[in-house]
Write a structure and sequence with these properties.
Elements: H1 2-17, H2 19-32, E1 38-44, E2 50-56, H3 80-87, H4 95-101, E3 105-107, H5 114-117, E4 133-135, H6 137-141, H7 145-150, H8 155-176, H9 180-195
Parallel strand pairs: 3-4
Antiparallel strand pairs: 1-2
Helix pairs in contact: 1-4
């Protein structure tokens, strides 16, 4: 109850304070390339149900059909503005809408697409008992994930066999020590990681 109240209050404050920035980003995206300002992708949330996550569109239209993973900072599917937005995590700002709607929280396991959830074991499904979040331990630990994937000859295999299991372990760690204090600590760490 306290966590939900925290999410509602601060997502609303965030959307109001960031409105000028959100409008500027939206305008730049619209001018640079054809397509919607927002990219809505189906992810798996609490209770193993699908929902649509909001992001600023950072790729050219139809690029997601060429693969689910973004590999390296020079992925040709990503727009020039998209590189900047991804670098500073600004493409994630529209997820404040998800938080306000209640299908996401500020902190919680990052929601995966169904394709990768299908690799979860029965024990791993505990991750789907809590709301997914904008940030989590895994987001901080794998802040350079795109570069890790770029260095691999088989990014998909690397993600499934090495990165995904580590993310799952970190998500379970979060669930075991879930508290408002932990959430605030993760939010502060995320901000410091982006700045540094």
């Amino acid at each position: 109850m306290i966590k939900r109240l925290f999410d509602i209050v601060f997502s609303l404050i965030g959307l109001i304070l960031l409105l000028p920035l959100l409008l500027i980003i939206a305008l730049i995206i619209k001018v640079e390339s054809k397509g919607s300002v927002f990219y809505k992708q189906v992810r798996v949330g609490k209770d193993n149900t699908n929902f649509k996550i909001f992001k600023f569109r950072t790729m050219f239209i139809g690029s997601d059909k060429k693969g689910l993973l973004t590999v390296g900072n020079k992925d040709p599917r990503v727009t020039k503005t998209g590189y900047f937005l991804r670098k500073y995590k600004l493409d994630e700002l529209p997820q404040l809408i998800n938080v306000l709607l209640g299908n996401m929280s500020f902190v919680g396991p990052r929601p995966e697409v169904r394709h990768y959830v299908n690799f979860y074991s029965k024990d791993d499904l505990i991750i789907l008992t809590v709301k997914p979040g904008i940030t989590d331990y895994a987001s901080i630990y794998f802040r350079n994930e795109v570069e890790i994937l770029k260095a691999s000859d088989n990014p998909e295999k690397l993600y499934i066999e090495q990165i995904l299991p580590k993310k799952i372990a970190l998500n379970k760690q979060y669930i075991e020590n879930n508290s408002l204090f932990t959430d605030i600590k993760i939010i502060l760490k995320t901000i410091l990681t982006i700045i540094s």
